[in-house]
Structures are given as structure tokens and as C-alpha cells.
Amino acid sequence: MGRTAALAGLGISLSVQAAKKQRPDPDARIDAHVRVRAVAVGPRDRIPAVDIALVVAVDVAAGRRDAAVAALTEAVGALPDGISYTVLGGGASQCYPLRGRWALADPADRRDAAFSVGRIAAADERQPPAGYTTWLARARELFAERALPVRHLVLVTDGAGRADEDDASRPDSALSRELARCEGEFTADVVAPGAGWDPAPLIAVAERLHGAAGSSPDAFAPAVATALGRLRKVRSPELPIEVTVRPNVREATLIETAPHQQRLEPEPVRDDPRRLEFRTHQWKPESRDYLLTLRADAGNDPLGVPLQLAAVTVGGATEAVVVRWLPSGTAAATARISGAAGRDIHTMNVSTRMRTALNDGYAALDLGSRERAEAQLGLAVRLATEIAADWVLDEVRKVARIVDGPRGVVRIGPAVDPGAVRQGMLSITSGHPMELPPAPPDGPALHCPYCDRPAGPAAVFCIHCGRQL
């Protein structure tokens, strides 16, 4: 069933679907399909430019400087009136505005900016590279002075500024620590001209800062315009998904499966250890799908009784995960997921495994491990064939030959273009949404008569006070 609630600029509809009958195991796994649909509320179809602070950071080698100047001239010339912006160049030094830290776009300012960006500096090959960590820290300092609702960095890099400490795989690296400081302060897109860059830190920047990463020609102005167009549709920079669980639920994980695949990290809510908050970002009118997985101990629960294991709340809308532990002997035959909820959950699980295998296959190929690449790409093809994800087959064909799709057999040729591999890694990260059928219609609202906390329509007991509804 679904719930609808209103936020400033957004109406939120929430539905949660799970199999009602489950096996009463000591470590029972319950999967639920969570769909959040946001619709625009209000007269405007986009946010005012005055609510946006934008930093455009251009980190390219000397051979790309002239193309970068032309692209920057086009990009700043198309900025909307009222937007606050700064342009950074080589070594994360400020290129524009010439005075002060922030410019405010208007016709006169755009003329000045189009002329001034011609002085942008390229990466100095005689000096150690500044590193992505430095660019992020510089952007963070700038955004601290501009407390606007939407703060966004567009990092244009051909890899010239990558430093040794930009190791996204190590949680103690300078880049990882700086990303932790930046998360929640601003969002970021990565635009990558050429193919001489290491994709791992670029993907880390986009994922941790909730943006997109993509390859681009040297004429990157359209990529900046696309990022800005997306920002102007944002109605809520951040929207938490709260999950409150019963004491017998040991673990709760939440994976966004559409429009992008990403595992969300929970943050415990102070003074309520059974309540977790998963932050999501940059909400515009759209639908997003999540796979919520609970691990519960059914040892002390009654059998055959509807039990609310968790409550999901988004923007004031609440839905419940309700299950019934089946009596011993009947569970094996009847606890299987069926119907629309079962199909959706199965597709989401398969899609998660498929994307992981595709990412691992491309990463192995980038490292020269052909045997592992063939195994992972083959697994991705087999799973894609199962759920008709044709885009995965197209991605694999860029680097390998599909011998047998249903069996997952692929072969990698003797020569693979490294640029195609790296560009594919960015494409996989930021694109290709998964399609699921529409959510069911809304049902009547339900609140606990004792503590007035919201509950799902099928709930029998309140998850907060424990009394019967």
C-alpha cells in the first residue's frame, strides 16, 4: 500500500512490499521493495538560480588548455541570472571572479567572465600535482561562505592533477578523509575528458558526493549545462529515509536500485538505537526504488500472527514491513515470495548482483586480469539475460564477445582499448536505470490510538509502544 505526505516543493508517495509469509528462522532474511515517488508541488517547475552555488573546477594538462578555455567561455556565457559561481584553474587557484570569492551572474558579469577565463592555468608539469583532495578542500572552503540550498561542484579533469594520496580504496587516505568532510556540505559531478585518468577516484568522488561521473569530449560545456539543468529541478537537496525496527531485528540494509545502484550507509538516531536514518540527496520529481533487507530472529515470536518488523518513513509518509511466521512444516512450501512484490524483489536482487559483476569485470579488465574479467562479465551477461537488461549486453560487447548469453560465456579478444574500458566504468556507474512496474494504489492511513505514531495498514501491534492496534 502507499502513503502520501507533503514537503516544501514535493509531495511524497511511499509504498513497501514484502512477502507476508516467512520462515521462522533464527536468522531470517526479509526483503522488501521500497518505492518513493516524489511529485512537484507549487507553481515553479525549477528552483530559482539564486538558490544555487556552483564551483567549476578545471584540472587539465597544458595540451587541453585551449579547448578548456573555449568550453569555459561557452559554459559561463550560458549561466542563468542570479546564480553564485566560482571558476578554479590549475592547482585549485581561483580564476574568476577577479575580486572576491564569488561572482553573481548577470549580463555584465557573463561578459567579464567570458573574457577572464582565458587566463585559466593548466596543470604545471614541473610541479607535483595538486591532487583531487586539494580541489575538494578548496571547494569546501568556498561553499562554507555560501549557505545556499543547493551547492554543487563540477570537477572537470583529464587526470593531470591526480596525486599519490588520491587512493579511494583506502579509508585512511587523504582523499577518503576529505570526502568524509565534504559529504553533506555539497554535491559533485565529475566530467572526464580524454581517457588518461584513473576511474576509481573519480567514481569515488561522484558516489560519495551524490553526483554523476562521465567521460566527455574536450568541449565539455554541454556537460556543465546538463549538470546545471539537473540541479534546477532539485526540490529537496536531502531527504532521509528512516527505518525503525523491532528489537529482534539484528540488521537493516538499504540499497538504492533505481535510478542508480548504491548502498546507503545508516546513521543511528540519537536516543533511539532501533531507529536508523539513511540519507538521500538531490530529489526532483521522480521515482526511486530501494531494496530493504532485514535480518531477524524469530525464535521468541508467536507463529501465524501478523507482526510489524519495521516501519519505513520518508517525508512524513510511513509504511510497515509486516510478516507472519509460518508454523513448522508449512514454511518450506508456502513462504516463497509470489506476485508483483516477489517479481520486483527478485528483479532488484538480480540487478544488484548483475551491476556488481559488471563493475568487477570492468575493474579486472582495467587491471589486466582477463580470466577474472571473463568470469565476472559472463556472470553479468547471464543475469542480464534473465531480467532482459539489454544495456548490460551492449556494455559487455564494447570489450568482449558474448558466446552464450543464457549460460554467461564471454571471450575477451587479444586487444582491448584501455580508453573504452575506463569510459565504460564511468558509464556503468552513472547510468542505466532499472524499470519496475507501477506501485499499487494508496490505502487508508493508520495511527496508533495510544501514542499516535504512524503504522502500516496491515500492522497489528504498534512498533513504538507495543500495544495492539
Note down, in words, how this protein is organized:
The chain is α+β, with helices and mostly antiparallel strands. It is built from eleven helices and 21 strands. The strands form four sheets. Strands 5, 6, 7, 8, 9, 10 and 11 form a seven-stranded mixed β-sheet that branches. A six-stranded antiparallel β-sheet has the order 1-2-4-17-13-14, covered by helices on one side. Helix 4 links the parallel strand 9 and strand 10 (187-193). Helix 8 (339-366) packs antiparallel against helix 11 (418-430). The radius of gyration is 24 Å and the shape is globular. The relative contact order is 0.15. Mean pLDDT is 86; it is low at 331-335 and 439-443.
Highest CATH level, the class of the largest domain = Alpha Beta
Q: Are there runs of 5+ residues with pLDDT below 50, and where?
A: 331-335, 439-443
How far the N terminus sits from the C terminus, by CA atoms, comes to: 18 Å
**CATH H-level superfamily of the largest domain:** von Willebrand factor, type A domain
Individual helix count: 11
CATH topology category name of the largest domain: Rossmann fold
Report the average pLDDT across residues: 86
Q: What is the makeup of the main sheet?
A: 7 strands, mixed
Q: What is the overall shape?
A: globular
The number of distinct structural domains comes to 3
**Percent of residues in β-strands:** 25-35%
| Count of strand segments | 21
Secondary structure class reads alpha+beta
Domain VWFA: 53-212
Organism: Streptomyces atratus
InterPro entries: VWF_A, vWFA_dom_sf
Protein name: von Willebrand factor type A domain-containing protein
